[in-house]
Specification:
alpha/beta; 4-stranded parallel beta sheet; 8 helices
């Protein structure tokens, strides 16, 4: 798993890894790719306040300032050019020491990395593909449509209708690309996009456990990932 901005120590990320391990009968890794520079958990509440519907905007200024204060250094220290080599090195070591299928799951910050791992350029030193398939929920920092255009390995994306990062314009762009690529591949299942009604950014890993609707949305994303990995695991073992 390549986590969201809150990093590998977040309880929800670790619990989801356990779920994947059980439901996919797999070994799941959640490495530290950020060298300790993840967002503090306190920012999670500020983000939810900023994106909540209704209310006076002026009341959100303190939350906005705290998010900016933490986000700017975080983004600088975890920019793609710095963290991508770490991710590639880790997965390369797994690929070179094992013959089992390798899948990637990325969330928010990790979403761009998961998508990039499906590109033809994501290979080991011997030319072997780093991953066999990837899943991402509410990915951030995508350049559309080029990032999904470059996908050559199976890719599944889960997004919400109320995601302020991957908005519906971006969703429609992905839909168009995936429909064309599936047609060219002659396989309607290789590239998949599912949209979760009412879901906000972070719904797959940062849902409120006391909110039944947010729990349902997280479950939808979990089921999508598990179905995706199990299906491609079966395909690759044939």
């Amino acid at each position: 798993m390549i986590p969201d901005a809150f990093g590998w120590e977040t309880p929800n990320n670790r619990l989801l890894c356990d779920v994947y391990a059980k439901r996919c009968s797999a070994t799941v890794y959640l490495p530290e790719f950020m060298n300790g520079y993840h967002l503090p958990m306190s920012v999670m509440g500020d983000m939810k306040e900023m994106t909540a519907e209704g209310g006076w905007m002026v009341g959100r200024i303190p939350s906005f300032m705290r998010v900016v204060y933490n986000m700017v250094p975080y983004l600088f220290r975890n920019r793609y050019t710095i963290t991508s080599p770490r991710i590639h090195a880790f997965i390369s070591s797994v690929r070179e020491s094992s013959s089992v299928p390798i899948f990637a799951a990325g969330f928010c910050w990790g979403g761009l990395h998961a998508v990039s791992l499906t590109h033809s350029t994501s290979v080991t030193s011997t030319g072997a593909p780093l991953v066999d398939a990837a899943f991402t929920a509410h990915p951030s920092n995508l350049t559309l449509p080029s990032d999904v255009e470059k996908a050559v390995k199976p890719l599944s994306i889960s997004s919400g209708t109320k995601d302020f990062v991957l908005d519906m314009k971006g969703v429609e762009s992905i839909k168009t690309v995936f429909a064309r690529k599936n047609g060219e591949e002659g396989d309607e299942r290789k590239f998949e996009l599912r949209v979760v009604e009412g879901a906000r950014h972070g719904f797959a890993v940062r849902g409120d456990p006391n909110d039944e609707e947010e729990l349902r949305q997280a479950q939808v994303a979990e089921d999508q990932a598990v179905e995706w990995f199990n299906r491609w695991s079966e395909e690759l073992r044939k």
